[in-house]
RsbT co-antagonist protein RsbRA (Palleronia abyssalis), 289 residues
Amino acid sequence: MPVRHIHVILDNERDRLLKAWGSSQAEEGLIRKDLFTESEARAQITMLYDALAKGVSASIESDDLDPEAECWDDLRAALAEVTRERTKRGVSTGDMAAFVLALKYPLFERLRDTVDDVNGKVLIEAISQFTRLIDAVALYTTELCISDRDKTIQRQHDEMMELASPVVELWDRVIAVPLVGTLDSMRAQEVMENTLSAIVEKKADIVIIDITGVVTVDTQVAQHLIRTAAAVRLMGAEAIISGISPRIAQTMVQLGVDTGEVRTRSSLRMALADALRQLEAGVVARKVQ
């Protein structure tokens, strides 16, 4: 029974294999002393080893190390915990997979030295089953790493979107939306939603959309700005686009962009002064409370 042989080795030679696993990782350059203390690294290895040994023990009766079986739930949970901690500290996906695979060869050596099989069938089957299991574990670890990285990237993207599209209250009933970087369709939608929500929240009558920090103004960007201004008017407020430099003005003329009824100013300062004059003159009617 190949699985029983693996179980006996994992159980009887725990300390020796744990040490060999650690040494194998050191040889591969996987011991990150800059990221983990020796005790932390040893605790992670021990957690995974014990969960692995438990799964092997539960597989003796079936004599099959099926990676999909429920007996590996503890190992999957331990992998999730270790992977999350290691990737959070900067360990790469490849190193995480190698971290798991490093257990293969110490165990293979002990199987070769301890399995008494004239025809070699038990040894071959044991190595084959354990290889399939460890390869599946390494693949699962890789999937965990990728999933965690994807979640981190999405969270950072969401945070960047919030920082890239802030709404600032400049004065009573006057808000500004300073834009920086590139304005694509997704970000333009985010800007519009944030702006319209801020109009209601701040009871704003004038919205200044400042594009001083926008990298490039092309036809698509101009259309996004005009649509946002149109949505602002539908909310009962008025939009002013500021930050129109001579270069941007020339580009918009060459592109044939018509800003229509949307007012433009060369700077945020001039747009704010214009907004305050309108409020003082009572040009912009207050919305019904």
Observations:
- The chain has two domains: 2-158, 168-281.
- The CA atoms of residues 34 and 188 lie 42 Å apart.
